[in-house]
Amino acid sequence: MSMPQPGEAPDTARQRLRVWLRLLKATRLVEATVRENLRVEFDTTLPRFDVLAALYRFEDGLKMSELSAALRVSNGNVTGIIERLVTDGLVLRVPVAGDKRATLVRLTKKGNEEFSKMAAAHATWVSAILEELPPEACEQMIGHLDTIGNSPKLTAKVNGDD
Fold it and tell me: What positions does the domain HTH marR-type occupy (predicted)?
């Protein structure tokens, strides 16, 4: 259990732990639903969807290292996914001018079209999953989650500044 900070009530630490556990449970449930929907409706995986989404945002493509950094995964994890996406005709490898070792990856026309369909379905699924939350509650949660996500304690650890 979390130790309360000096001057902080033990109930506050316990309540924050409960919030964390609820966030984790909700995230897992939503993710499991999205994974299953991607598998059933598009015969694809969430990691493939994530790679396509990252490439969709960068029309000119990304170097493999940039893609790995954007997804916060290792180059090895991305390489296998890219191989399969190239084989499926969804992604194209392009040499980087002036750098023989680097390769850009970007969506093909087919990849762009396929991802657009997946993204629309994804948005519909997530909206349906969260439909019981009124818009005001969504805005509050976004604010609270932004507060957590922008915490100097967390960003320093993620960026290796501690």
Answer: 16-150
